[in-house]
Specification:
Number of helices: 0
Order of helices and strands: EEEEEEEEEEEEEEEEE
Shape: globular
Helix content: under 10%
Distance between the termini: 36 Å
CATH topology of the domain at 2-106: Lipocalin
CATH architecture of the domain at 2-106: Beta Barrel
Low-confidence stretches: 165-188, 191-196, 207-223, 229-242
Structural class: mainly beta
Radius of gyration: 26 Å
Number of strands: 17
Length: 249
């Protein structure tokens, strides 16, 4: 498994034993989620605004730079790495050369991940103003934008779902899947619901006798706070605050 830390390390751990396989000191906090390529190399963003490409053994291969901190997870598709920056842009980086192919502006900082269409032609991301952007992966041309109506959103990453049979394989056609038998269900008041496929018949579990009622006593009431004021919770804990970069104007 791979990750980053506020101490500036990018690390690889053995997922079975937890042993450290390697670590790389980036020099700044790493809050971006890395992308791991087929060759085992890793691409990750840093608090400094750098996007790093590390080898499968943890050595630096290449570096690209954005104009502000990178908290967004890195997405990879068709030889291109996509990553948002707090400088209000989404970046497309050519993995082979690690040169920036293009960048496109959002309405606010971009901390979301990027979803890429099945054919690789479109990328989708969300900015901190709650606006979803659809852009062409070839050059960053904006195809459309849609507002969620919620300012302060943008940490959530878009997810694409491809309907079954919607995208035929390249070079051929795909026959539609056979349709399941339909039934109509009736709701109170006479309204008819939309037809739904009948579920496949599967044997159910054997019937068992019901369990006897629980003999456990009810939990004791919570103690009331003392007249002098509430006592601190035994579960209270403290964590060191990590400075965050100011949001760009």
């Amino acid at each position: 498994m791979y990750g980053g830390s506020d101490s500036g390390e990018v690390f690889a751990l053995n997922s079975t034993t937890g042993a450290v396989l390697w670590s790389y000191q980036a020099g700044d906090p790493v809050r971006s989620s890395p992308a791991v390529l087929a060759d085992g190399s890793v691409i990750v963003g840093c608090y400094s605004g750098d996007v790093l490409h590390l080898s499968a053994s943890g050595s630096l291969l290449a570096k690209a730079h954005t104009d502000y901190s990178v908290y967004a997870p890195v997405s990879v598709a068709n030889g291109t790495a996509f990553v948002g920056s707090m400088d209000k842009h989404l970046y497309a980086i050519d993995i082979a050369t690690f040169a920036i192919k293009w960048k496109v502006a959002g309405a606010n900082v971009v901390n979301s991940g990027t979803a890429v269409s099945a054919d690789g032609s479109l990328a989708y991301f969300m900015d901190y103003s709650g606006i979803v952007h659809c852009v062409a992966t070839a050059d960053g041309t904006v195809k459309w934008t849609a507002s969620t109506g919620t300012n302060g959103a943008g940490g959530s990453s878009p997810v694409l779902v491809r309907p079954s049979g919607a995208c035929p394989p390249a070079g051929g056609s795909q026959a539609p899947a056979p349709r399941a038998p339909l039934r109509r269900t009736h709701r109170p008041g006479g309204a008819t619901a939309e037809p739904r496929p009948l579920p496949a018949a599967t044997p159910g579990p054997p019937m068992t006798a019901p369990s006897p009622p629980s003999s456990r006593l009810p939990a004791p009431p919570r103690p009331r706070p003392s007249p002098g004021g509430p006592s601190p919770s035994p579960l209270a804990h403290h964590s060191a605050a990590v400075p965050r970069p100011p949001t760009p104007a």
